[in-house]
Amino acid sequence: MATIRDVAKLAGVSVATVSRVLNKNGYVNSETEQKVRKAMQQLQYEPNAVARGLAGKRTGTIGLILPDISNPFFPELARGVEDVAQRSGFTVILCNSDDQGPKEKLYIEVLKKKYIDGIIFASNTLVQEDIEQMKRDNLPLVVLDRASSHEAYSVVRSKNFEGAKMAVKHLLEIGCSKVAHLYGPQELITAKDRLRGYEDVAKHFGWFSPSLMIPGYFRIDGGMAAVEELLSRHPDVDGIFAGNDLMALGALKGLKRRGIKVPEQIAICGFDGISLTEIAEPELTTVAQPIYEMGELAASILIQKIETAAAVSELFELDVKLIQRDSTQKKVMR
Amino acid sequence: MATIRDVAKLAGVSVATVSRVLNKNGYVNSETEQKVRKAMQQLQYEPNAVARGLAGKRTGTIGLILPDISNPFFPELARGVEDVAQRSGFTVILCNSDDQGPKEKLYIEVLKKKYIDGIIFASNTLVQEDIEQMKRDNLPLVVLDRASSHEAYSVVRSKNFEGAKMAVKHLLEIGCSKVAHLYGPQELITAKDRLRGYEDVAKHFGWFSPSLMIPGYFRIDGGMAAVEELLSRHPDVDGIFAGNDLMALGALKGLKRRGIKVPEQIAICGFDGISLTEIAEPELTTVAQPIYEMGELAASILIQKIETAAAVSELFELDVKLIQRDSTQKKVMR
Question: What is the reported pTM?
Fold first, then answer.
């Protein structure tokens, strides 16, 4: 394999000149640059990205740590990140952390050792210590969706609290007289904000009881289990706001298995806006986040940080939108 | 940051000894190893995985190139790979190639430069040239699911041809009198084998016509578009074998939109066995691949190749299984 020395020799220039061409820093006149590029081509020289990484140069790679690629929300987010990255000449490496703190730490370590230029992190378990470390390592960081604070890095997320309120109000508007909430793990700021939003609206009504808030996981089987629990506590419930769309799909499935009609007997509203909500029967009403745009924005911010070495920390909270479908079709008022 | 020299100095041993401890090769007595480990701890020395990569040592990282993480088949496959990798002390880096040849080539290049120990590839566009190059680079390779040949690397896939035949026979057995096939892109060996399987059974029947084979994409909207085309060609069709489960979900959605009842008017069978088939209404009959096990097997083989440097090339074809659900519930014979 050709080395940088071989290229320099063939081009008749110094190794330092080749390096300047490779890393696009320092002045090289265009004739010399041409000679170097021609020599690289002739020798099929591939600049070693890792070695350049070692020397503190950019490697053109971004790490994206996702908590659960089996939740369609994250592949859609990843698509936005990848499209922007590609347009800017970066490739994206994915890690799937399963929402497990130790795995996330491990992936950060692995990515750092692979000399990536920055990390986009969609996680609940990033702790202050990790952030401080990345700051010391001078590793640009953007946190997507789930961050609880926004010190020392930029955060992109959507308006979970407001969106939850929209969902509950919508269920009441269509005539529901008792609305429950199936909520996700409270380590996740998204799950927490949506629960807060539910409570903020529901607590003012006579039908409200804390036992209408049912814990669960952000998965289909999580929704199925939670709806079972709900029906045993409150057989008279007629509206469900699920903490995310997968839970809503699970709740729908659980209700169907029991022969309960949606929306006639119980109306359901999810959160996220994944495309599976259109596959469900009936199609699911959901509070849609601008998923793809969140990914795009996160990538744009990260790349800007990488390219300008700017240490800005901003919080971007994107608007959500209620998409009404058959699962909350207007009910006859009781 | 501490270097290997600092560790050697503090431990009072040679750099070569520290290297032997790090890479677990060559003899080091346990007292010396203890001293070295203590020095590493004291200095917070982190063996630089990339530098070790440069020196030809293992980095403990596997690359997994997936064609489309928005198809739930692949996250489930990835889960199998990750679980086995984790048990063996490897971490997995994912790349999402969108079934695009140029992107796949790019990811191979990126992964190679990141000094990974091996690649698992689920692709249709891997060409002989890429394979030869990886062979020259001595990069262990396992190809999952979609490979067209199995020279120079091991292949894990399931019995697509046989599975397709099972699907068509099943639709005929439940009383369908005219069975169509919505097939996926023919660059994919899986799509090709399933189409072959369909034809192999269907061509013996009087109702068969090549126009019953409708091209489409392995996505939900691909199934929706293909079923539209099918109904315009053959309004009297009463059985559909879709090339994968996402297409089957799309076909189901398309039929529902037109008010056509499944399975009463048209029965549907998919292929893959993703869990979304249980969410559909009616639940979808499918030819299930052992998805998770395929991922596990691929990872086991790759790790064995990495650890033993064995250049074996084997083909593993796993059995598939018909799972009958409501979308092909027994029809009244006409």
Answer: 0.79
